[in-house]
Specification:
This protein is of the alpha/beta class and 337 residues long. Helix content is 31%, strand content 30%. The chain binds nicotinamide-adenine-dinucleotide.
Length: 337
């Protein structure tokens, strides 16, 4: 029996070729088709991968009974229509972040997938980063104590987009990390930002999240910044940790720092003592997050498992992005989710 997952990739712009390279090199996958509406993109892939059949429209391939799954790496506004076609034709779906632009669309896709017993996996890449997985494990073991708050910074001087703002472009990564680490969805979102380069397309966005448990989180994204920073800082009652995606080999630092409470002291201020201990860099097994993500998708397709970044996880991220957009448009008004 053929054990390979027969896959099509849609979209070979900037990011799609990374998915193609990874899926192509995995033994459990065979890429049967690449679909792209742009001739230049099609030519690029056909010269690099002559074995892959190249098409210009998704509808040309969905009747193929051999095809099991489709991976979508087109720009965000096209995700919903393409994803709907994929699920309607009975194929499993991988879709790049963000799942859709509207939460009702993500809900509809989830319902369709559930009715047809199909898989939706969203490309929340950092949930497959060994450093983030390690961080999640030590949080679950209680090593950091109770988590107080998380803040993330994803800034650089980079590709300026003219439709999708910095929030929709970058924040899905940070939001998916926050939801994964806290295992909780926020109840309130506040977002402010500014568009300097293209009217109406924010270059910098600051978003704050409140959770029912009292935890908070903050996400700073920008493509108009002198620094290249991709960091997540987690502050707990026992320890603190920093995940730095731009520091290969030392992605995670755990700080034995905190404020201890000494019971029985007369005055409250006097009973708080600072603890400044060691900084530890754990050895984390290497592994390309994108390869891990692709392997996970293939495993889910073959063994009918629910992906870690499933359609519900994708929906939760879209709900936050949508609320943040509403807050942005309303000058930072708090929006309940
Ligand atoms: N996981 C990550 O780290 C990461 C990084 C970058 C981009 N992305 C995501 O990948 C997706 C693509 O981003 P990009 O920067 O490669 O975009 P892009 O605009 O460079 O490429 C999109 C490609 O899709 C094709 N396309 C668009 N609509 C189509 C349609 N209806 N049918 C067939 N082809 C179509 C375009 O011709 C183009 O070649 C986005 O969702 C983005 O958020 C993820």
């Amino acid at each position: 029996m053929d054990k390979k997952v027969h896959l099509a990739v849609v979209g070979a712009g900037s990011w799609g070729p990374n998915l193609i390279r990874n899926f192509y090199n995995l033994k459990s996958c065979q890429i049967d088709y690449l679909v792209d509406s742009d001739e230049k993109a099609r030519k690029k892939i056909s010269s690099q991968y002559p074995q892959i059949e190249i098409k210009s429209q998704l509808s040309e391939i969905l009747d193929d009974p051999k095809l099991q799954a489709v991976a979508i790496a087109t720009s965000a506004p096209s995700h919903y229509d393409l994803a709907l076609q994929v699920l309607s034709s009975g194929k499993d779906l991988y879709v790049e972040k963000p799942l859709t632009l509207k939460s009702y669309q993500a809900e509809k896709l989830n319902k369709l997938a559930s009715d047809k017993n199909l898989i939706i996996m969203v490309g929340h890449l950092l949930m497959y980063h060994p450093g983030v997985i390690y961080l999640k494990q030590i949080i679950e073991k209680g090593e950091l104590g109770d988590i107080y708050y998380i803040y993330t910074t994803r800034v650089n001087l980079g590709k300026v987009r003219d439709q999708e703002n910095a929030l929709w472009s970058f924040a899905p990564h940070d939001l998916s990390i926050i939801l994964y680490l806290l295992d909780e969805t926020p109840t309130e979102v506040v977002s402010t930002g500014a568009a300097f380069l293209n009217p109406g397309v924010e270059d910098v966005v600051f978003t704050s999240l409140k959770f029912k448990s009292g935890k908070t989180a903050h996400v700073h994204v920008s493509w108009l910044d002198p620094h290249k920073i991709r960091k997540t800082t987690v502050v707990g009652s026992k320890k603190m940790a920093v995940f730095d995606d731009a520091a290969p080999g030392e992605n995670l630092r755990i700080y034995d720092k905190g404020v201890d409470y000494q019971p029985g002291m007369a005055d409250y201020q006097g009973s708080l003592t600072l603890r400044i201990g060691d900084i530890y860099i754990p050895k984390i097994p290497a592994g390309e997050p994108l390869k891990n993500e692709c392997l996970h998708f293939l495993d889910c397709v073959q063994n009918r498992k629910n992906p870690k970044s499933d359609g519900i996880n994708g929906l939760n991220v879209v709900k936050i992005l949508q609320a943040a957009t509403q807050s942005l448009r309303d000058h930072g008004k708090p929006i309940n989710i």
